[in-house]
Amino acid sequence: MQTRPHALVAMSRSSFDAHFDRSRLERLASLVTLGDPVWTDDLDSSAARARLADAEVLLTSWGAPELTPARLAAAPRLRALLHCAGSVRGLVGDVVWQRGIRVTSAADANAVPVAEYTLAAIIFAGKKAPFLAVDEQRAYGGWGSVTGYGDLSNFGRTVGVVGFSRIGRKVVDLLGLLDGTTCLVADPHADPAEVAAAGAALVPLDELLPRADVLTLHAPELAETRHLIGAAELRRLPDHATVINTARGSLVDAAALAAECASGRLFAILDVTDPEPLPTDSPLRGLAHVMVTPHIAGSLGSEIGRLTDHTLDELARWTTDQPLRAEITAEHWALGRSA
Question: Taking the model in full, what pTM does it have?
Answer without folding.
Answer: 0.89
